[in-house]
Every structure is written in structure tokens, then in C-alpha cells.
Amino acid sequence: MKDNMLIYCSDTEASLRTSEALIPTLRSAGITISPSLTDDVDLIVCIGGGGTFLEAIHHFDFPEVPFIGINTGHLGFFQEMMPDMLDDFITNYREEKYSLQPMHTVQALVTSGGRTDEYVGLNEVIICSASTHSVHLNISIGGSFIERFSGDGVLIATPAGSTAYNYSLGGSIVDPRLRLLQVTPMAPMNTTAYRSFTSSIVLPPDLSIGIHPDGKGSKGKIRISVDGFEYLYDELESVDVRLSEKVINLLRFESYDFWSKVKSKFL
Ligand code: NAP
Q1: Would you say residue 22 has pLDDT above 70?
Q2: How far does the centroid of ligand 1 lie from the alpha carbon of residue 1, in Å?
Q3: Other CB atoms closer than 10 Å to residue 221's CB: what's the count?
Q4: Distance between CA 79 and CA 215 in Å, rounded?
Q5: Are 153 and 116 in contact (CB under 8 A)?
Q6: 134 lines ligand 1 (CB under 6 A)
Q7: What one-character DSSP code corresponds to residue 204?
Q8: Which residues contact residue 191 at a Cβ distance below 8 angstroms, ignoring those fewer than 6 apart?
Q9: Coil, strand, or helix at residue 222?
């Protein structure tokens, strides 16, 4: 019997109000609320918007336990339900009228000063200038040199992240049932001085993307951003980006349909 949940809640008034309503509803349905992420937690309930959800998965270091989101934020693309659906949630959960949607993640190995840092993201990894200067990045795919990119930077999106920053940059929306990475240029320069791809590149799951800053012409620090978490590097040597083995599972009700959600949130 699945009867132990953990609540992760943003600190907005709407989220706290929702949490206050949720706790007695869960308890009266015989569900216990765990204060921390232990092995017997069956579900993490995340109350907030997309930002809170991203914060939660990083906070719990990409756990195997599934999440369900209650949207009290703005867009709420990851969030499955609104605060007024708590009773339906308990009924559907108890009757196992749901499925788990796996969301693939992206891994970046960042080497600088002889040290390698590993980052995992659900939405994307961005390699860009920390200032308004352009960056020049030698990009290879599957070990073969492809282009010397010049512009603001490159964003490497998962299907889950394709509807986020990637979409604002003109990247494609990708159905999360596909396992792939999308490399989207950020303000690429495409002149007789600099030649860069101006559209996204879509890669199969087994290919990695290698990025080596071209010292000649690049000024200042490079910023690595992972789901909005930022890291600055003075002497970046390389970034190796590939699909990660880690998967986030989202609990979805029977009525969930990815493309209906896209339509309702974007059109
Ligand atoms: P944020 O303010 O927390 O998020 C910016 C917006 O992106 C919010 O409306 C958020 O939804 C939405 N969002 C997040 N993940 C999404 C997804 N997978 N699909 C559709 N929308 C999504 O920004 P942040 O803390 O700096 O970074 C968090 C994420 O925001 C990043 O991973 C990045 O993809 C995105 N972002 C987008 C832009 C842009 O589009 N120009 C710029 C910076 C960052 P909620 O309203 O539900 O929170």
C-alpha cells in the first residue's frame, strides 16, 4: 500500500495555503507525511511553479521517487494539478488511476584548472558568456569537430526542457517520449567574419557534445547554467554534454496528454 508522502513547498502565500489544506486531506485518507526523503517515501508532492519543481529535484539530487506537482506558480508546465483538485488527486492515487511519465536528464562534465565538475539538469545546460562579450566555442559531436560557434552561447536542452528557454530561443518543442538532446544556438553570429549554425541541431541519445572555448577572441568568464543554477569559470577548458542515466518520474492522471498541455500553455 502506498501511504507515505513528502511535501516540498515554495514559500508563497498560495503554496503555504495549499499545503495547509493538503496535510489534513492526506491524513484523513490514511496517508502519512514524511519529514525527510527516506527509503519508504512513495511520492514527493511539490507545491509551487516550474521553478519550485526544478529546485526540488536538485535539492533531492534527482531521486527515483516519483513527483506530482500542484501548480501555485505562473505557468506550471511540469505541475499536474491545481490546488482545487486535492480530493480527485487522493481518489485517483488510491485507485491507481495514473501513470508515470519518465523525463530524461542531461549531464555536463565541466573541466577547468585540472578539476572536473559534474552537473545534471532536467531542462538544459547552457554554456555562455558571463558578460555581453561574445564567446567562441569549438563544438564537436560524437568526437568530430563540427563548428566554431560565435555568439552569446549554446543551450543543450532535453525534451523536458524543450518548452522552456529552448523554445524562447526558437528551438523545437520535443515530445518527452523521445530520448534526444537539442543543441540550440543563442544569438549566433553568421557573417563573413564568423560562421555558425543558426538553427537547433537534434542528436540521438548515444552522441555526446564536446565544447572547447577558443581562447583567441573570447573575453572574460564563461557561465554554465543548469536549470537556472549558475556557475562561473575563469579558465574553462572543456564541457562534455550527454544524456544522463538519471530519470525523473512524474505522476500523471489518466487525462494527461502532453500535446494538450502544450496547446493549453502556449496557444
Ligand atoms: P524561472 O523564472 O524560474 O522560470 C522562467 C519560466 O520558465 C517560468 O514561467 C517557468 O514556469 C518556466 N519553465 C521552467 N521550466 C519549464 C519547462 N520545462 N517548460 C515550460 N516552461 C518552463 O527562471 P530560472 O529560475 O532562471 O530558470 C528556470 C528555468 O527557466 C530554466 O531552466 C530555463 O529553461 C527557464 N528560463 C527561460 C528563459 C526564457 O524563456 N527566456 C530565460 C531564463 C530561464 P513557472 O511559471 O511555472 O515557474
Answers
A1: yes
A2: 35
A3: 14
A4: 42
A5: no
A6: no
A7: -
A8: none
A9: strand
pTM exceeds 0.90 for this model: yes
Which set of grid coordinates corresponds to residue 133? Answer: 562579450
CB distance 69 to ligand 1 below 6 Å: no
Alpha-carbon distance 188 to 173, whole Å?
Answer: 20
Q: pLDDT grade, residue 218 (50/70/90)?
A: low
Q: In 10 A of CB 260, how many CB atoms? A: 10
Cβ burial 198-213 (10 Å sphere, 16+ → b, else e): eebbbbeeeebbbbbb
62 residue type, one letter = F
Find residue 215's DSSP bridge partners.
none
Three-state secondary-structure class, residue 60? coil
Judge contact between 21 and 85, C-beta under 8 A: no
The set of residues, in sequence order, having a beta carbon less than 8 Å from that of 206 and lying 6+ positions away, is none
165 lines ligand 1 (CB under 6 A): yes
3-state secondary structure 173-220: CCCCCCCCEEEEEECCCCCCCCCCCCCCEEECCCCCEEEEECCCCCCC
Provide the angle, in degrees to the nearest 10, between the axes of the packed helices 13-28 and 86-94: 40
Whether 57 is in the pocket of ligand 1, judged by its Cβ within 6 Å, is no
Per residue in 122-163, pLDDT (tens digit) is 999 999 999 999 999 999 999 999 999 999 999 999 999 999
Report CA(194)–ligand 1 centroid distance (Å).
30
Residue bearing the CA closest to ligand 1, atom 21? 164
